[in-house]
Specification:
Elements: H1 2-7, H2 12-24, E1 30-37, E2 40-47, H3 51-69, H4 77-82, E3 89-90, H5 93-108, H6 118-123, H7 136-143, E4 152-154, E5 159-161, H8 174-188, E6 194-198, E7 201-205, E8 214-217, E9 228-232, E10 235-241, E11 246-248, E12 254-256, E13 271-278, H9 281-294, H10 296-306, E14 310-315, E15 319-323, E16 330-332, E17 338-342
Helix pairs in contact: 3-8, 8-9, 9-10
The structure holds adenosine monophosphate (AMP) and magnesium ion.
Residues 172-173, 240, 285, 288-289 line the site of magnesium ion (MG).
Length: 343
């Protein structure tokens, strides 16, 4: 443990470096590819035979998904849906799956998570970086366009229909979905060990080539050293945090990019980050955003009702809260005011 403590420095990237150095000495070859996609810097690393080709296929798939779900590309499928003016549209299997998953996810979260918040995030300027604080009346008006129960899906016909002014934004789940797709390509090509860092969404396939688990550090929301590391195999570890994107308005207040689906306002609660550890990237990405919006108490309640994932929450007053499934798989390096294990 001490040795790890000395090696882990400041961020996930360093945690990845540990994995790499262990693998450098192993016989199996590390194949690394970096690319920019989905507004973020991604690194994919696969080990062994076929790795280089698998990375190329993965990169192609990442671009393909980006071209489907980008809200800023006029020709993307999501843009077509968002501009359909109430018409029923036939969509790809990928989009159909995302629409179905996120609609159910919104229902399950009681509206905290909402895949059709685009008009609201746009009004705050998060889509263009022209940040403003909209008036309460404007937000109330925009919220009337975010009733996800009005999304109609026909799975047989593969069609989606929404009211004319309703617009999708899969920003909260796109990278998790993409991670699952990449790992499925890797598996189909016989890759047994891989590490994806899709802009902070980490997903690992199998163990490291030396048979030990991956050691992945969490970003420190306050800056500085890695506060917590988790030992993982065949898992996704996905974090939502206000510190990822925010702006400070003229009133001196900071507003973050994660919006409470029920109020239309950027989340303001005791959480600084919500991390999910679970098998599926899509589910983990959905949950990280959802638990962040719900806040500590409701997040714990949500976990108690589902229990098919683990979480790590960090709060404003520097408390660390994690679920019992992580006991024995987590190392805490930072001095927290309080550490709580949820059972
Ligand atoms: P993440 O970093 O995974 O939590 O995703 C944050 C992104 O999801 C934001 O940049 C928005 O594009 C979108 N988003 C913000 N608030 C919500 C919400 N309540 N439900 C669904 N998507 C959201
Ligand atoms: Mg998310």
């Amino acid at each position: 443990m001490k040795q790890i403590k000395n090696v882990i420095k400041t961020s996930l990237i360093f945690a990845m470096a540990i994995s790499l150095s262990a693998c450098d000495s192993a016989k199996s070859k590390a194949n690394t590819k970096s690319l920019e996609a989905m507004d973020t810097y991604m690194t994919i690393r696969s080990f062994g035979k076929n790795g280089e080709l698998a990375n190329e296929k993965a990169a192609q798939r990442i671009k393909e998904i980006e071209n489907l779900i980008s809200t800023t590309r006029a020709e993307s499928e999501v843009s077509r849906l968002n501009n359909a003016g109430g018409q029923t549209l036939q969509v790809s299997d990928d989009t159909l799956r995302l629409v179905k998953f996120t609609k159910q996810g919104a229902e399950k979260s009681g509206g905290a998570f909402n895949p059709v918040l685009y008009p609201v995030t746009k009004a705050w300027g998060f889509t263009t970086k022209n940040y403003t604080v909209p008036s309460a009346a404007a937000i109330a008006d925009l919220l009337t366009k975010t009733d996800y129960s009005k999304i109609t899906i026909d799975e047989k016909e593969k069609t989606v229909q929404v009211p004319a002014d309703m617009k999708f934004d899969f920003g909260a789940v796109g990278k998790g979905f993409t991670g699952d797709e990449v790992l499925s390509i890797f598996k189909s090509m016989g890759i047994k060990s891989a590490l994806l860092d899709l802009g902070g969404n980490v997903q690992v396939l199998g163990k490291k080539v030396d048979g030990s688990p991956w050691v992945i550090g969490l970003k420190n929301p306050w800056g500085g050293e890695v506060p917590v590391a988790v030992y993982l195999d065949d898992c996704a570890m996905i974090t939502s945090g206000g510190y990822e994107r925010y702006f400070t308005a003229d009133d001196g207040k900071s507003y973050i990019h994660i919006i409470d689906g029920n109020t239309g306002y950027p989340v303001e609660n005791e959480l600084v980050s919500a991390t999910i550890v679970t098998k599926s990237g899509l589910y983990g990405d959905y949950l990280s955003t959802t638990l962040f919006v719900l806040g500590k108490d409701k997040a714990i309640e949500f976990w108690r009702q589902n229990k098919d994932f683990d979480f790590i929450l960090m709060t404003e007053d520097q408390s660390l809260i994690y679920t019992k499934g992580l006991e024995g798989r987590i190392s805490v390096f930072a001095q927290f005011n309080n550490v709580e294990v949820v059972r």
